[in-house]
Write a structure and sequence with these properties.
mainly alpha; 5 helices; rod-shaped
């Protein structure tokens, strides 16, 4: 059995990690062992923050909807508005509602009045 040298494979693996660590500060971008730790930690942060980004966008949408609803009716809160939408049978997600509240206030006002009518009935 002939001897297998792993230099090519090891070099490629090291190069891949160092390339992923490009832009990191000091030894984190040059030293393989330190770069490996930095890249692994960065991957953990990336995984965690993909979930956090979804949460923060939902919170932003809720704030925008709440502000939009209160601009049309100071008495109505976000939760009452969502409840009224369900009673009115209006199925629009929060992302679209927030976009309407910011960019198309007239259309959002129409939705608010329909929701208020369903709540009163």
């Amino acid at each position: 059995m002939s001897r297998v040298k792993s230099g090519v494979v090891t070099h490629a693996r090291h190069k891949k990690v160092i390339k992923a660590a490009a832009g990191y500060y000091s030894a984190r971008s040059r030293n393989f062992k330190t770069a490996t730790q930095a890249v692994d930690k960065a991957m953990q942060y990336a995984t965690r923050d993909r979930k956090a980004r979804k949460r923060s966008f939902r919170a932003l949408w809720i704030q925008r909807i709440n502000a939009g609803v209160r601009a049309f009716d100071a008495e109505m809160t976000y939760s009452r508005f969502i409840n009224a939408l369900e009673k009115a049978g209006i199925a629009v997600d929060r992302k679209v509602l927030a976009d309407l509240a910011v960019h198309e206030p007239e259309a959002f006002g129409t939705i608010v009045t329909q929701a208020k009518a369903a709540l009163a009935a």
